[in-house]
Design a protein that fits this description.
- The protein has a single domain, classed as Leucine Aminopeptidase, subunit E, domain 1, CATH 3.40.220.10.
- It contains seven helices and eight strands, in the order ββαββααββααβαβα.
- The strands form two sheets. The protein has a six-stranded mixed β-sheet, sandwiched between helices. Strands 1-2 form a two-stranded antiparallel sheet.
- With 214 residues, the protein is of the alpha/beta class.
- Helix 5 runs parallel beside helix 6 (165-182) and helix 6 packs across helix 7 (196-213).
Length: 214
């Protein structure tokens, strides 16, 4: 195992030098309640592992427009959830890029799966950043609408859809951060990265963002 890394109590890889913000950030204006006593940074976690093992109110699936499963994270989630997830997705129909749909979690440890369709980097071109940001924003909005408190995201579009991970992680963290600043109802957002190089990119940018806020 690389230096400065260890396993948390749930078996997920964590960075031992992640910036601590309990005494740095101030609560944004217009926010209150127990969630904001911690500040935005404390409501974001970054882990390395399989998102299908996360215990949360919802995990987010980087889905295809058909919602009928595929490769990568999409395939793992459908396999772990069981055939009932596929049947529910068939009843929903297609999901446009940037939008999100919600289903039950079935055999997964989470209560729900939020399906969002990320942009294909080379095909969506100049629209890709806004579409990717919409994936995160619409997934979070859907979670809040259903009264969910904890949501876990994979690295949307960073696999077969070819989005450069360094650019994608900035959009992911910035979009989630901005959402949490404006809405206190979500208690925790977890980024679950399957590849170590993606995990390091998220850690580095998250720490840079936190330092910029202090």
């Amino acid at each position: 195992m690389p230096a400065n890394y260890g396993l948390d109590k749930t078996g997920f890889l964590q960075h031992n030098n992640l910036v601590s913000h309990s005494s740095k950030g101030s609560s944004p204006k217009g926010m209150n309640g127990d969630a904001m006593k911690e500040g935005v940074a404390e409501r974001i976690q970054i882990r390395m592992g399989e998102i299908t093992q996360i215990e949360a109110d919802a995990i987010v699936n980087a889905a295809k427009p058909t919602l009928l499963g595929g490769e990568g994270v999409d395939g793992m989630i459908h396999w772990a959830a069981g055939e009932s997830l596929l049947e529910e997705c068939r009843g929903i129909g297609r999901c446009p890029t940037g939008e999100a749909r919600i289903t039950r979690g079935y055999n997964l440890p989470c209560r729900h799966v939020i399906h969002t369709v990320g942009p294909v980097y080379k095909l969506d071109g100049a629209d890709a950043p806004n579409l990717l940001s919409s994936c995160y924003r619409n997934s979070l909005r859907l979670a809040v609408e259903h009264g969910l408190a904890t949501v876990a995201f994979p690295a949307i579009s960073c696999g077969a859809y070819g989005y450069p991970a360094e650019k994608a992680c900035r959009i992911a963290i910035d979009t989630v951060w901005d959402f949490l600043e404006s809405d206190e109802r979500l208690q925790k957002v977890i980024f679950v990265l399957y590849r170590f190089e993606h995990y390091e990119l998220y850690i580095d940018y998250f720490n840079a963002r936190c330092n910029a806020q202090s």
